[in-house]
Amino acid sequence: xxxxxxxxxxxxxxxxAVVEDGRHILAxxxxxxxxxxxxxxxxxxxxxxxRHTEVISQLTGEVLAECGDNIDAVxxxxxxxxxxxxxxxxxxxxxxxxxxxLPYVPVHHLEGHVFSVFLTDEPPAFPFLTLIVSGGHTCLVxxxxxxxxxxxxxTRDDAVGESFDKVARLLELPxxxxxxxxxxxxxxxxxxxxxxxxxxxxxxLDFSYSGLKTAVLYALRQENGWNVADIAASFQAAAIDLLLxxxxxxxxxxxxxxxxxxxxxxxxxxxRERLTAEIGEPVHVPPLSLCVDNGAMIAAAGASRxxxxxxxxxxxxxxxxxxxx
Length: 325
Known about the structure:
Helices cover 43% and strands 19% of the residues. By secondary structure, it is α/β, with parallel strands linked by helices. The chain folds into two domains: 3-117 and 290-307, Nucleotidyltransferase, domain 5 (2-Layer Sandwich), CATH 3.30.420; 125-285, ATPase, nucleotide binding domain (Nucleotidyltransferase, domain 5, 2-Layer Sandwich), CATH 3.30.420. Strand 9, helix 9 and strand 10 (283-284) form a beta-alpha-beta unit. The longest helix has 27 residues, at 228-254. The chain is globular. The model has no long low-confidence stretch (mean pLDDT 96).
């Protein structure tokens, strides 16, 4: 039996959790900064790192008070992400580990999203295909064994979550863009505008969302009296279409027996519905609370890494850009 303290501070959410045996969440706390960054239409790195510093000790205290302070190892996101934010979590985790003479386990942020599904009642067995979709990442990863990954395709420009935020700003909808576009699209016609599915017709497994964003901008300039709901619904349909096109192609090429979808955009209702309806293989998607950045997913990944002997010295640091593979 193992208890791992997980710390996530890669962007604008401070997540602290304790997970037992890599499967069971004993305590999970999250402090979101969305309301503060909404004033600027996106994340302000300096504000984000300051807020992490202000709340991380309190959240850790609340987590330990809830489940006890019997901890076997400390895991923290070391990258990729905002450098200032990463340093807050990494240095706090290393200090905690040093003070208690515990192992320190650095975890890649995207691997945390992969392991979020192992906190569900019916986790997948390796191997499987993972679609990681968030504000900063859109990629397809072949997960053949624990901690052995192959990047099959990634976005050439904007991540899908980033395009949701940018289009929401064009439509004067609230930040973050994912939930606000989903809500606006409920009363819209997804076929009102035929927006492009960037790179949907080529043979690669890469994505492109900058053209979709630009197409929305041109539509707003050309249309008189345009309907926000119709544009939101048409944009959302195009964005999700491209994800489904690439997922189906990747499953066909790799013959992997299951699909995992993770990351903030995996909370999108249309994406979840279409994956369930259209993918022939078993589909595993974490609950909404585990789609956003959180400490539990880092603890789950950390538990597996610790069990496989992946630890680091206290001289290791954060890295703003580092590939999963």
